[in-house]
Design a protein that fits this description.
Hypothetical Protein Yqey, Chain: A, domain1, Arc Repressor Mutant, subunit A, 2 domains, 150 residues, 7 helices, mainly alpha
Amino acid sequence: MQERFTEALKEAVKSQDKIRISTLRLITAAIKDRDIAARGADRGEGASDEQVLEILSKMVKQRQEAAATYEEAGRLELAEQERAEILVIEEFLPTQLSDEEIQAAVNEAIVQTGAESLKDMGKVMGALKGKYAGQMDFGKAGGLVKQQLG
């Protein structure tokens, strides 16, 4: 997956797309940070594809929050820049699940884990994160799990 970022960065530099270049550089820097942290923990390997998807999902969420804050402050040009970065990041994420698909995945995870109460929420969320990394809003999924188990 990291090779895709390197190739995309080369193409962005050739086309002189400034937002794409800066966003891809931020992505590669975040991945390198994770690689260094993984090596420091004596695991030896770099960031896995699942970890990369997790990083990208966090980056999208941060930019969504920043765009909303900029809009509230009347800084529309900065909000647009954040949204442009989101589009670049989302190119590397798998297709996001719809609300109905998230509901179905939550139902399936509850059945598979045998969850019966809120005490089992961690098991359900762990199953969802393992199977749907980068494909769903886990905040939304967590709310649905609480609703069903609560």
